[in-house]
Amino acid sequence: MKIHEHHARDIFKKYGLPVPEAEVANNPEEVKNIARGMTPPVVVKAQVLVGGRGKAGGVKIAENHDDAMDKSKDIFGLLIKGLRVEKVLVAEAVDIENEYYLGILLDRDKKKHCVIASTAGGVDIEQVAEETPELIGKTWVDPAYGLHPFEIRNMLFDAGFDPKLALKVTGILMKLYKVVIENDCSLAEINPLVQAKDGTLWAIDAKVNFDDSSLYRHPELKPLKESEETDPIEKEAHARGIAYVRLEDGNVGVIGNGAGLVMATMDEVKRFGKGIAKPANFLDIGGGAQADLVRSALELVTMDQNVKVILINVFGGITRCDEVAKGILQAIEEVDLKVPIIIRLAGTNEKEGRELLIYSGLEKYLDIKNAPYKVIESLEQAAPIILETIGVPAQ
Ligand code: GDP
Ligand code: MN
Question: Which of 14, 94, 105, 260 shows the greatest Cβ crowding within 10 Å of its Cβ?
């Protein structure tokens, strides 16, 4: 689970990490009022759940409260990696001398937390890792012994931090580790930690991800989860009680019954997709789905504008294939789906289901591009049809 910068900052503050004064604003007028009460210059920052806001024009420094209001007008409504900016953070700007990177994340291979620091902060840390790995220090934490200051100091010295600075940064990393452990974070990151011209250190960006499996231990995070659902389609899916996860860069909507079958279907799309066809989502209609739910599922999947074709893979047990077929027909009638559906139905009432679809008169065997759907007998038949559909540029 991801949270916005301003919430991450609140947590940092609670743990004594140095975050500058800041407040959230919902419109340019609020930006002005908040900035008026601050010592200028101020920085106005888009609150969206992705990184790289600076590069996308979502972080701007303003000279005074009027300037802050003007600049915020360009930030509100900006689309950053597909997410619209609805809130901004107004913070007292720091006069930056140097930028550093600090992060703690869970290394699943080593089953340990990894503490990372770099003198090349503020920029894309993945790029630093690739181009100048010598500028990155790492140390892994033995969960039985915890993290000790000397381990951090050694790591910082190796990464080229000046000794005096390393002492201060050690204190910050110890606090950040406490944040991670006490809140079950899969990631906590300060990028950048900055040294101001007067020598003080400030965490001017804050990022925290939580391990979803541990949320039951943190009731205080529940309201955050509800208000911060990342993706508008995922939010809609949860409101409808449908298990849906959106993937980045996919173009094939995947619907099935049972998590295992849906995941296997996604793997299959990825395998035959040759890097062109990729699963766009996970959607499990569950057991015993009625037509309404199937209709709703199809509607959800096509809310993702990247979806060019949908693959339905149902193995009927408690789920009846004829109910699934009815749902598909309902969706085609009531929702403008815009993309073709490839359908494989097997198991309970498969014959009835297929007949409903085949005799509807909607399926045009020879022309998938203009037909609303195509019924297939086995999943293998899906590959050529999907590739053909994706290969043709959208009209
Ligand atoms: P991100 O691009 O989403 O990671 O957003 P950040 O909060 O990290 O801000 C991006 C960049 O904006 C930082 O690396 C700084 O260079 C700049 N920036 C952010 N806050 C301040 C500030 O208070 N003072 C100054 N001078 N620059 C800032
Ligand atoms: Mn940042």
Answer: 94
